[in-house]
Write a structure and sequence with these properties.
6-stranded mixed β-sheet; Rossmann fold; single chain
Length: 508
């Protein structure tokens, strides 16, 4: 790391109606460093990043690159200045292929692009950085994790000198994360600057040189990574102490009973390929069963099949011995299955509708009389759930899309839990959330299990599974390839299994 200041943001102010997102924020990033940016959801990180990438204009303050003041009127201006960002919420065209999305917006791109050359370059980058994705696949056919990889490839393809990475490891195995960190160090050695935004504090400690923390739209400190700790960083983020220990269950699972039973399940993905092959598993009342695996190995399809969102080709699903109809979400709901999908804003919720409308989606029949919705009844329920789940919102009529990620997830959890489910399918429930919101969501999952709900936790975050699950299953290429009691689980060995190593060798 040199002493040259590559990026300097001074006195940055950005206001939105009723909100000051950035309140005189200062940020200095040195050439040749990985600089981590931390803060709770709503702390101002995204707004600051959007200013640096030309999506927003600041209301006050200055931005300098290598000592020269710059003003960006568009993302194109920022890109031309060598700034690229991998956003937490993807900027992809769902009907285009991976290769088409990678070159989309390039000044020399056209309908007549050399598709073979682009695909070859994308494949080269994919292989180099361990970002496995099919260049010919269309975005709508990809999992959330695979879409994230496309965003990373877009930045790498454009050769940006200043890279802003927002939660880049959310769906990587420990080994892949380690390899990505090596790659970032290579980038730094090549003269690039990396701004690393993550809620995984262990990763921040492992990869960054310095850390800047935002809270409430303000800069609360910049520290040298080697001179701090995860505990100190978490406290700086939320303004209080945060516990990271493994969750201790108050009520043991009823292992002698089975609430969810999946037998010999087979299903296809959106491209018609086999996604699930003879998958069998069970969940007991009060048990948290973790499904570990790298994105794209059938986890999304498994969640959708059990929740009735995707048909099966063979096999069976039962809840308390009663069969769930294939591809019928209403049947799954009627049997007591609740579902928290990985894509909370588009699949889990109606993002343009209000908080109270989203609460009413699953029980609108009980909230209506003579087929007319009883608004006061809906509002009363919403007020109760907002208070019970500590949802930070201006009111129940606020559109869900205007809430922070943590509060969006609380809305989804509140709706699903209020239905008194027998089984809860939670897919990446803390993805993209800050440490405070993660703590809250995990507490709610444990509370559900302690109340007798069988929880199937599907997550690419191995640490999350290790902290919550009673029993861990590993998925690879559409199969359950390993099973281990959480108390005897070895993180490194499970990570190897997630990557395709021999199950018996890796887990036992």
């Amino acid at each position: 790391m040199t002493s040259e200041i590559a990026v300097k943001m001074t006195g940055i102010v950005k206001k939105f109606p009723g909100v000051i997102a950035n309140d005189h924020v200062n940020l200095e990033i040195m050439a040749g460093e990985v600089h981590a940016l931390l803060g709770e959801n709503g702390a101002g990180k995204s707004t600051l990043s959007n200013i640096l990438t030309g999506l927003y204009r600041q209301d006050a303050g200055t931005v300098e690159l290598s000592g020269k003041k710059v003003e960006f009127n568009s993302p194109r201006d920022a890109l031309n200045a060598g700034i690229g960002m991998v956003h937490q919420h993807f900027r992809l065209v769902s009907t285009f292929t991976v290769a088409e999305n990678v070159v989309l917006g390039e000044s020399d791109s056209s309908l007549f692009m050399d598709q073979k050359a682009v695909a070859a370059r994308v494949q080269e980058l994919s292989d180099r950085y361990g970002l496995a994705v099919d260049p010919s696949a269309r975005i709508w056919q990809l999992s959330v994790g695979e879409q994230q990889r496309v965003e990373i490839l877009k930045v790498l393809y454009r050769g940006a000198r200043i890279l802003i990475l927002d939660e880049p490891t959310a769906v990587l195995t420990p080994i892949e994360t380690t390899e990505l960190f090596k790659t970032l160090r290579v980038m730094i050695s090549e003269g690039r600057v990396v701004i690393f935004i993550s809620h995984k504090l262990d990763e921040v400690m492992a990869v960054s040189d310095r850390v800047t923390v935002l809270r409430g739209g303000r800069t609360v400190g910049t520290v040298n990574t080697r001179e701090t700790s995860t505990t100190d960083l978490a406290s700086l983020m939320v303004g209080r102490s945060v516990e990271f220990n493994r969750v201790v269950r108050q009520v043991p699972a009823h292992r002698e009973k089975t609430v969810l039973d999946v037998r010999d399940l087979c299903a296809h993905d959106d491209r018609g390929r086999v996604a699930l092959e003879s998958v069998s598993l069970s969940v007991s009342p009060g048990e948290i069963v973790g499904i570990a695996g790298v994105a794209g190995n059938g986890q999304r399809e498994l969640a959708e099949v059990i929740s009735g969102m995707r048909p099966i080709t063979s096999g069976s699903i039962t809840v308390d011995g009663e069969g769930v109809q294939s591809g019928r979400a209403r049947s799954a709901i009627a049997k007591g299955i609740a579902h928290v999908p990985e894509d909370r804003l588009h699949t889990g919720l109606a993002s343009n509708h209000s908080v109270e409308d989203n609460f009413a989606l699953k029980n609108y029949r009980s909230m209506s009389r003579f087929r007319i919705l009883q608004r006061q009844k809906i509002r009363d329920q919403s007020t109760h759930l907002i208070e019970r789940y500590d949802i930070k919102t201006p009111g129940s009529e606020t559109p869900v899309r205007l809430l922070s990620g943590g509060n969006v997830q609380k809305v989804l959890l509140a709706r699903e839990f209020s239905a008194s489910p027998k089984v809860l399918i939670a897919a990446s429930p803390t993805r993209g959330l800050d440490v405070g919101a993660i703590e809250t969501v995990r507490e709610r999952l444990v509370q559900a299990a302690d109340s007798g709900v069988g929880v199937l936790l599907i997550s690419e975050d191995l640490d999350e599974i290790l902290s919550l699950a009673d029993r861990i299953l590993v998925m690879y290429e559409g199969r359950i390839v390993a099973e281990v009691e959480a108390a005897q689980a070895d993180r490194a060995r499970i990570g190897l299994t997630m990557g395709g190593s021999d199950a018996k060798e890796a887990v036992q």
